[in-house]
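Work Package 3 (structural annotation) set out to generate three-dimensional models for the target panel prioritized at the project kickoff. During this period the team completed the workflow that converts sequence records into discrete structure tokens, so that structures can be stored uniformly alongside our sequence database. As a representative example, we reproduce one entry of 316 residues exactly as it appears in the project archive.
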Amino acid sequence: MKYFSLMSCLIFILFFGCNEVNPKGEKQVIKFVKQWNEAHTQLKSPYLKDYYMAVVTYYGKERTRTQVQENKNFLFQQFPDYTQTILNDKMIITKEAGNFLVSFTKHVSYDGIEADYTSFLSVMNKNGDFKILREGVDENIENLDAPIFPSFLENNVILSNKRKLYGDFNGDGLSDFATVISPEIITARNADKQVKNAVECIGGCSSVIMFSNTDLNPITINDAYQSQLENLKDLNGDGADEIGFWDIKPTSKSLYVFNATNGMLLTEPIVINTAVHKNLKLIDVFKKTGPNKITVTRSVEVDGKWRLKSEVVLLD
């Protein structure tokens, strides 16, 4: 009789207790999902790929982590003001074949539109880190053709060829491309003067250089809202092209010279006073003048007058 009672308890636990989540595990899952949700901003979105497995089911279709990241990039390219929250911070967590199924209502806001969608994530614990296996919404909800969903975004080329800068930025001998996620400008005050914070942007006036090769980390440039990219070719002999970022302001242009493989600056930003030194081209301010050597030309103020000054920079 005792044996029968013991077996009955084990069977009950096996079939009815396996879907329960222990409180500690639930707290960890909730924390992870909140972090994922909070990363859906224009500045944090370039790092969303870190939350996903290498291959996932994304809104009903198999996608790689890279494709998911591209889709998130497209979303913020088209709707820089996009935000999402978990309604009332309420989540329902159940065990699903050893993973965690997290259900919640996602409240989204974009382009003056607000809507709620019944959503879910399937999350697994891999080597102590949580990763997303599936992301989607209830297939029975309305407005599945809304422009924020992958089915719409994938049919619209948000990143036009004009916005892509091609080059071999990781040194593997293959062509990559880079593009810039720019902030949305709210207001522009004192536009005729170079005044810090004269321009205000949603979420801050920072721009992010994104690379098609996700092995290359995004590069964030603060206080930059209008820009242009330049392929500077291989400057330091590592086999990878360096990338130039023009930070364009009403009365100045600053060229940032980045090593794309590690995101480090190779020299101080090259600032040009465009109110005085007008119509200067890249070759006028930047030249490769030898192995691991460049010559840069900046605007400098000497005795109350603005002049162009050149210097040779040796690269490591």
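The chain has two domains: 19-153, 161-314.
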